[in-house]
Amino acid sequence: MTPxxxxxxxxxxxxxxxxxxxxxxxxxxxxxxxEHTDYNDGFVLPFALPHRAVVAAAPASGSGSTVTSAQEPxxxxxxxxxxxxxxxxxxxxxxxxxxxxxxxxGYPVPELDLVLDSDVPVGAGLSSSAALECxxxxxxxxxxxxxVDRTPMAVLARRAENDFVGAPTGGMDQMASMHGRPERLVxxxxxxxxxxxxxFPLSGHGLTLLVIDTRAPHAHADGQYGERRSDCAAxxxxxxxxxLRDATLEAVEALTDDRIRRRARHIxxxxxxxxxxxxxxxxxxxxxxxxxxxxxxxxxxxDDFEITVPHVDVAAEVARDAGAHGSRMxxxxxxxxxxxLVDDADVPAVRGAVEKAYADRGWTAPxxxxxxxxxxxxxxx
Length: 381
Ligand code: GAF
Known about the structure:
The protein is an alpha+beta fold and about 375 residues long. The model has no long low-confidence stretch (mean pLDDT about 95). A hairpin with a 6-residue loop joins strand 10 and strand 11 (about 335-345). The strands form 3 sheets. Strands 5-4-6-3-1-13 form a 6-stranded mixed β-sheet, with helices on both faces. Strands 10-11-9-12 form a 4-stranded antiparallel β-sheet. Strands 2-7-8 form a 3-stranded antiparallel β-sheet, with helices on both faces. The chain contains 11 helices and 13 strands. It starts with a helix and ends with a strand. The longest helix has 25 residues, at about 260-280. The protein has 2 domains: about 5-195, Ribosomal Protein S5, domain 2 (2-Layer Sandwich); about 200-370, GHMP kinase, C-terminal domain (Alpha-Beta Plaits, 2-Layer Sandwich), CATH 3.30.70. The radius of gyration is 21 Å and the shape is globular. The chain has helices at about 5-15, 90-105, 130-145, 150-165, 170-180, 225-240, 250-255, 260-280, 290-305, 310-320, 345-360, and strands at about 20-30, 45, 45-60, 65-70, 75-80, 110-120, 185-190, 195-200, 205-215, 325-330, 335-345, 365-370, 380. 2-deoxy-2-fluoro-alpha-D-galactopyranose (GAF) binds near residues 39 and 169. 2-deoxy-2-fluoro-alpha-D-galactopyranose (GAF) binds near residues 31, 169, 173 and 332.
């Protein structure tokens, strides 16, 4: 259930014996299309989920900072003034990493008591970590008395993720969490962080975007993500371009190393698909028309980028066979979630078909929910 400001305030009160100074939130995200393009100076098209991390905070009553999460058993303490990369493993690193990133940027960093709750599924490729970082970031800015705009806040959150936690991600997730808007996709050019909010009128067309959480294990920092980054860098190097964003398909097809060629082909064709989808939606087309691009994206991440696993391939294929207009894995890969664009009337059939396919294979049942583009990070109370 989505944590409310009142519930998280109550949690704060029972832990600290007084009211928090405020409550802030930031959402997780689904990426509609544009996978692994964000560290290649490319294009992405995510949207913010209604699922969010919520943080209640106040100036610390002791000499250091504390953070408690409804999802975790222990309270973690750290010094906002001194915490450094390597000090805190696990979930608290995303929190302390924001304090560190603020400090590195020269912003004031007060010691705080924080109480967190989140309904963004963890390990599902829906950016639970970016939600945490951005929620803490907006709280930290308000309580430190500084104004940090949405894009610079996303940049600080990415810094926390890359340089404090040590996950070598791009910047899409934090930008989606900061810039999300109801009924809008966040079309992001990662070369200059330019944003265009693109309409995604699902309900007006009788459409649902289903998220199928395959529950297959998923992790960024497991080496595979970094290997894909290195392959892309090697391809750009071989092509003599600053980033794969600048490569042509013709040049890519001439690369002699088969693996490097396929990695680069995914990036170049995926950038084209993102731009095609944006052109359709910005032009007012029926969103059903983006279905083929979603399918092609899935085939590309399966065959060329090789980041899917059987659980996601089965979900994507079965959803399509059961009537989805398009379906694809979303997020970093190696597990996580599949999205499917489905007529409202076909939702039970698609959900049922995927559940049956999983049961037939003896797999843990998937969890399915509807995703609607939602608000980006803000103060709640
Ligand atoms: C993860 C990363 F955090 C993003 O930066 C992005 O690369 C994504 O995987 C793949 O598109 O979510």
